[in-house]
Design a protein that fits this description.
The longest helix is centred in the middle third of the chain and has 25 residues, at 37-61. Helices cover 72% and strands 0% of the residues. By secondary structure, it is mainly alpha-helical.
Length: 137
């Protein structure tokens, strides 16, 4: 990803740890309908990370520029998430990148509510694992 300042480096390390934890919880999801408090908190933090990514994507897409004041953090997380979509070769399959991130967030919220669709957990695990790899590079 290039040169990182100390602030960005600490953010990326924090997010690398979070994505690892999210991936571990998703790995254990199986048929769980109820999560322990710690697991639920980890998945909720994953949703918050997706919110940061969506904020950065909305800014880059030029949506709601008047009402938005994107943080450096949201733009940084968006950059890493975009490279993750490229690494997973999902970028050519997605017309609207922001919508892809919103779908990932919706899928996480579905899992938190105890619902599961076929392939969703695996898809989220792939995304968070690859995002964590991008943060660690």
């Amino acid at each position: 990803m290039g040169y990182l300042g100390m602030s960005e480096k600490s953010q990326t390390l924090r997010y690398a740890l979070l994505t690892t934890k999210v991936t571990e919880v998703l790995l254990d999801v199986g048929t769980k309908k109820i999560f322990a408090d710690r697991e639920k908190e980890t998945l909720e933090r994953g949703v918050q990370l997706l919110d940061e990514i969506i904020d950065g994507a909305n800014f880059v897409d030029g949506k709601d520029l008047e009402s938005m004041s994107p943080t450096e953090e949201s733009l940084t997380t968006y950059r890493y998430a975009l490279s993750t979509l490229q690494a997973l070769q999902l970028i050519s399959k997605v017309e609207k990148i922001t919508e892809k991130f919103q779908q990932l967030k919706s899928d996480m919220q579905l899992i938190l509510s105890g619902e599961q669709k076929a392939g969703v957990v695996e898809h989220l695990m792939d995304f968070f694992f690859s995002l964590g790899s991008a943060f660690r590079e």
